[in-house]
Amino acid sequence: MASYNIALNFEDGVTRLVTCKAGEKVLDAAFRAKINLPMDCSDGVCGTCKCRAESGLYDLGDDYIEDALSVDEKKNGLVLTCQMVPESDCVIAVPATSVACKTEQGRFTATVSKIEQHNDAAIVLELDVDATAPQFLPGQYVNIDVPGSGQHRSYSFSSAPGESKISFLIKRITGGVMSTWLDSTQPNNKLELTGPFGSFYLRAVERPLLLLAGGTGLAPFLSMLEVLARTNSQQKVHLIYGVTRDLDLVQVEAIEAYMARLPNFSYATVVAEADSNHPRKGWVTQHMPPEALNDGDVDVYLCGPPPMVDAVRKHFDDNGVKPNSFHYEKFTPNATSRTP
User: Fold this and answer.
1) What residue ranges define each of the domains in the chain, with the CATH number in brackets?
2) What distances in angstroms separate CA 174 from CA 122, 183, 251, one per listed residue?
3) Is the pLDDT of residue 335 over 80?
4) Residue 307: enclosing H or E segment and its boundaries?
5) What letter does residue 118 receive in the DSSP assignment?
6) Which of 70, 146, 192, 338 is spaced 20 to 30 A from 282 at the CA atom?
7) pTM of the prediction?
């Protein structure tokens, strides 16, 4: 019989995936996985278990009262998990922390299989997961413990969910904790990872997408593009990839390969350095074609360093650009600041 993967996204950025059996309610599936979602009556009367379904198909039946879930709330994607029976994989935003729901952060071990240097700009790290392949939403990140340092660093997956081989695009930092460790490590060394985390992930694709990447902020978009290609998405997708120097342009071949796999995909690279010979110089905001904004009927995803994120937000405000949805994530070289 069919079963579905249900991603539960908690307020503190923790994500847990549970399997919902055919005909099973989300609340029951969560309890079976030892996750205590908010609830009181479990009969569709109190509304305590109200969450937001961000994607997926489901049936709410009619065994609940309107005081618990109004018609307007239902139209806006709110659900009662005590009544919600999934009919596909779903993503649910839970208005509580993972701690309040007594769920633990996922933790797993992986083995270094490949380390690929990209000039002095970035490092591609590939890992083989030692046990069950991690489930995450394309765009999310994990914390990787740096052996011997007592510290961890946060990196977005650049690979697709559910694979036993996972990859990350890591900015090279001279003297950085992770960069230094990667310079001295060898294949077959072990790493401990915690996650997934983050509210920056690909939502249901119902309109054109504009993807804006800065530097190694390209990583989550590689994960998204792979998922879009595998699901044969027909929506228009335009990626603008901005960097400081020519040498910072990495994995362009991987981007180019999606031209053959996604029929409505296009991309542009932009270099900020004034003495670059790149055909497009400046900032991503200077190379944002009007058609990519589709008169506002577009979902925008932005991942890059804080100045880039702030500049794009200001550009939108100054020019009256109001996309259907705007999801962004800031990162700094030594830590990751996650902003919805």
Assistant:
1) 3-93 (3.10.20.30), 107-197 (2.40.30.10), 209-337 (3.40.50.80)
2) 11, 11, 21
3) no
4) helix 306-318
5) E
6) 338
7) 0.85
Mean of pLDDT values over 321-333:
88
Find where tokens 């794009």 sit: 312
- Cα dist. 139→5, 67, 136, 201 in Å? 17, 36, 8, 4
Q: Are 228 and 264 in contact (CB under 8 A)?
A: no
Give the position of tokens 């995803």.
Answer: 301
Separation between Cα atoms, residue 3 and residue 19, nearest integer Å = 7
What CA–CA distance (Å, rounded) separates 90 from 56?
4
Residue position matching structure tokens 């005081």: 67
Strands 237-243 and 209-214: parallel
Peptide bond into 196 cis (omega under 30): yes
Q: Which residue reads 């009256």 in tokens?
A: 320
DSSP string computed for 215-233: GGGGHHHHHHHHHHHHTT-
Phi, psi of 3 (to 5 degrees): -140, 160
Residue 140: DSSP 8-state: -
* Chain segment 169-187, per-residue pLDDT in tens: 999 999 999 999 999 998 9
Give the tens place of pLDDT for each residue, 65-88.
999 999 999 999 999 999 999 999
Contacts of 218 (CB under 8 A, 6+ apart): 158, 169, 241, 250, 251, 255, 303
Percent of the chain with pLDDT over 70: 97
CA angle, residues 237, 240, 243, in degrees to nearest 5: 155
What pLDDT, on the 0 to 100 scale, is given for residue 334?
A: 56
The three-class DSSP label of residue 306 is: helix
Buried b (16+ CB within 10 A) or exposed e, 64-83: beeebbeeebeeeebbbbbb
R_g (Cα) of the chain, nearest Å: 21
241 and 269 Cβ atoms separated by less than 8 Å: yes
* Closest by Cα among 222, 112, 216, 226 to 169: 216
